Each structure stands twice: as structure tokens, then as C-alpha cells.
Automatic annotation (TrEMBL):
Its main location: cytoplasm. Monomer. HAMAP family: IF_3. One of its GO terms (cellular component) is membrane. Signal peptide: none annotated. It comes from Actinomadura hallensis. One of its GO terms (biological process) is ribosome disassembly. Pfam families: IF3_C (PF00707), IF3_N (PF05198). This is Translation initiation factor IF-3.
Length: 170
């Protein structure tokens, strides 16, 4: 006769009982008999309200998704011969993105003869990294990719967590 190790509705051990008896106990308690560990010898079954269990596990999964950190990569495009005022504007965007906790992909686009002077773009990226170093760190060093030079700046973890705490208390 097939048997199962039965666990009660509050997690208490009932013991090893025949399946027919387990089903009878479930019917009496107006609960479902759910197989929890089918590979165990004997298999483990539990008395529970399966609908309630499914609802609660769905709510836990939803809560976990809500608390998940979403990494967003924002992109800023620059040219090597950027005007000082335009540079300040773009730097302001980078600062805003880093304060919001987003990563920033900085792309410098080279056109024509500018391609023969990649050090101009490298210097510009270094300057930008130094200007925002209190908010973020260089996640990937500047590297040439065809006509573009790309660098990724990530926010400091501690800074963003404190910033969110300060906003929630205000």
C-alpha cells in the first residue's frame, strides 16, 4: 500500500500514513493534499489550502520584482571640439543621471580628420570622469570603436542609497 510522510497544516509532522488516510484527513479539514517532495522516500505531502498558497507565492514574487534594482543605461553623445558651455550642459546631464542611480554611456563621435586625433576624445573623456568622480566611477575605460570612443560611468552604490534615504525622509 503506497504511503506518504504527512505534514499538517501548521507544519507539524503527522507521520507516515497511507495515501487514502491522508486524503481522508484532508477532506475532514477542508484542505488540499499537496505533494511537496515527490523524490523523497516515502514522498512528502502537506495539508494546505492550495489556492491561498498559490496566491501568496504570486504576491511574494511580485514584491520581489518590485524591489529589484533596474539598471538603466543613459547615453550622452559628444564631439571632440565641443564648446565649453555645451560641455557644461552635457556634464550636467551626466550628473543628473548618476544622481538618479543610472549608468551613463558617454560616446564621442569623430568625423573626418578628427579620427586621426583620438587623443582629443580620450582627454575629453578623462576630464569628464574627473569632473564627476564624486558621483560615479569609470566602469569601462575609454575605448575606440570605429568612428566612436566609448566610456561607461557607473554611480557609486553608497551615494545612491543615501540619496534615496534622504528623499524618502524629506
Amino acid at each position: 500500500m503506497p504511503e506518504v510522510r504527512l505534514v499538517g497544516p501548521n507544519g507539524e509532522q503527522v507521520g507516515i500514513v497511507p495515501i487514502a488516510k491522508a486524503l481522508e484527513l484532508a477532506r475532514e479539514a477542508d484542505l488540499d493534499l499537496v505533494e511537496v517532495a515527490p523524490t523523497a522516500r516515502p514522498p512528502v505531502a502537506k495539508l494546505m489550502d492550495y489556492g491561498k498558497f498559490k496566491y501568496e507565492s504570486a504576491m511574494k514574487a511580485r514584491e520581489a520584482r518590485k524591489n529589484q534594482a533596474h539598471t538603466v543605461i543613459k547615453e550622452i553623445k559628444l564631439r571632440p571640439k565641443i564648446d565649453p558651455h555645451d560641455y557644461e550642459t552635457k556634464k550636467g546631464h551626466v550628473v543628473r543621471f548618476l544622481k538618479a542611480g543610472d549608468k551613463v554611456k558617454v560616446t564621442i563621435m569623430f568625423r573626418g580628420r578628427e579620427q586621426s586625433r583620438p587623443e582629443l576624445g580620450y582627454r575629453l573623456l578623462q576630464r569628464l570622469a574627473e569632473d564627476v568622480e564624486e558621483l560615479g566611477f569609470v566602469e569601462s575605460r575609454p575605448k575606440q570603436d570605429g568612428r566612436n570612443m566609448i566610456m561607461v560611468i557607473g554611480p557609486h552604490k553608497k551615494k545612491t542609497a543615501r540619496g534615496q534615504e534622504a528623499e524618502s525622509t524629506a
